Sequence to fold (772 residues):
Amino acid sequence: MARSPASSVLIRTLIVALAMSSLTEGSPAASRPPDRMPDPVVWDSPSADARGSMPLGNGDIGLNAWVDAGGDLLFYIGKTDAWEDNSRLAKVGLVRLRLSPPLPTNSSSFRQELHPARGEMIVRTSDPTNGTRAVRLWVDANHPVIHLEVESDTASTATASFELWRTEPTVLPSIEVGDVLLDRLVDGAQREPTVVEPDTVLHNLESGIGWYHRNGKSVGPEMTMRIQDLLEAPWRDPIIHRVFGAWIIGDGVERSDDYHLVSPDQTHHRFRIHVLTRQPATAEEWFEAILLSESNIQAIGHDPARAAHLAWWRDFWSRSHIRITPRGSSPPASVQAVNRGYALQRYIIACGGRGDYPIKFNGSIFTVPWPDTPGGPDYRRWGTGYWWQNTRLSYTALCTSGDLDLLPSLYKMYAGEVLDVSIHRTHRYFGIENAAYFPECIYPWGAVFSEVYGWDPPAAERTDKLQKNRYHKWEWVSGLEFVFMLQDYYAHTDDKAFLKETILPTALPVLRFFDLFYQTGPDGKLVMHPAQALETWWDATNPMSEVAGLHAVIGRLLDLPGPDLPAEDRHYLEGLRERIPTLPTREVDGVRMLAPAARFEEKRNIENPELYAVFPFRMVSFEKPNATLGIEALHHRLDRGAFGWRQEDIFMAYLGLADEARDYVVERASVHDPDSRFPAFWGPNYDWTPDQDHGGVLVTALQAMLLQSEGDRIFLLPAWPADWDVDFKLHAPHRTTIEGTVEAGVLTVLRVNPEARRRDIVVPDRFRPAEG
Fold:
């Protein structure tokens, strides 16, 4: 019903009055608090191709969805465990919805909306002939099914179909470093091809249409473990007999052929696309599992399932938020970009972070076809494996945002298969018992990348059994960083079982490796050589990354209360701490600062390892007496930038450099892939689009500007700029949540739960209200 101008004024007046009455006690604000839900992303025109897609997902199943110029809605389906025969993380397939008559895309009423707050995309159109139509697409947050729904004023026909590109065995003309068969020679001459196997269409189904991919071969696991002399390690093959695929059904639909499903002429249409993976399984077992999934979902019912879906997303967004308001000369557009970038990166992580495998930094499950790249949507630069330095950046912010349910896949892989294989590897290569080093580049089953390790000769015939590739031959910070992240999780949850069952069984072997691999010098300190400082300094002694990591991890273990750390382990760690070298420093033009290593030569990359004492290990930070060493190192760094995996934004935040951190996060949030339409598809940068490192750094840096912790102390606004007001809710250790509002440069609202933790909070004087 249309409202008169007078009634609209009255309604606005009532809204303002209600908002004012609900202000937090003691707040001087006379305006409504910022909306804490993310803004929708709205487009008023169709897209040329999949590079103009919007992301949707339920943590395991991800979609790239768009409307083309002809009015069809299309979406690629990705899945976190869709590993094909060559150990490449592949797309599941492509689904197309075609309406007859089609959606009008040249109409001024065309509106495509992504609603992160609800985990759904809606396409709305209106024209004089067909009236209003709405297409809703959502991936059930709690079940492995995609819902595709159409509502309209007038009747139409809806056809759902699927399209495959893996239709026959195909040799990839080129592959990436992380893929398995790169540079493998057969008989020393001919390169072994990477053959992509076809998918299988389900024929003559009584209801629905579908397809699957079943791995009848396994390229990678057995071969790499044999070459690296790890066949006797506790490992399993995650590739062989893995089945993934989809089944499309609907309400009142008719099967046209094996590829098309038609919903007849009516004003509403509903399709369900079930997406499932099983391993090991036959095709029959996989399809039986899909039938069971559909039966369970039907027993719940559409409306209750949708209500639970919406409740999951409400809960997700209620966990935490950051909403900035500019003041003074701070450009509103810049702040808007930061707000949007922060929220949408959290959304993308939620869409792809609850599956069986960790998030792929180089595209997550949202890769799409790009011109001149082999393999269509399955292609990703750097290939299929996991680089730790890249992988971690999707996860470093999750404790502070309260998104603890997005962490298990990372912990499961690295504290599971990777740890077990690493303990075996360390004993096999060096004869060191119950110790582990984590290589930088690994496959999910624990082997080092084929291209990195080298094919010939096999490890059993080598004197030097380490990888041949020098970029990370002696880089062993991965295990220390992983343990430090586990310690962050424990600090936030106080989960004693996690400490006993995951942290200590991982931390002690990692620490023992450094102790037993390196010798001590005349001063009783470990001489960590051969070593390297990340990928950047290839010839180093006592690299900052490992030295800082050892100090940080051991310190946190020794801070545990007596009963939580066995006496024998405590005694060992106290002795080991005494043997760790001091943080390396250097002098430049008479100024002392952190150094990449005690000795460092042969620069081959563009990282800043000297600043790993700042992040991730927090041995140097704004409130400590050594902060100047970090600040000088930052200002004298050789390489810099606010994009990709570069972490200067985070360094600045931990060093309390508010204005520098602000400028870097603004620059980072303002630049996405120019060939992608979605504003949080970052990249390609060093890696691939959407670049999860780029967004991960943005989220971590912004959080660190607002909140940092050290032991029981909580530092609020340690690097917050004077020209940004903010409304926020974040999480701190010991199950603490903190909500605050900064208005006119003053912290006007502060809620702490539990209230007893308020005494541990430190706020800079400049944000405190004036006395009286």
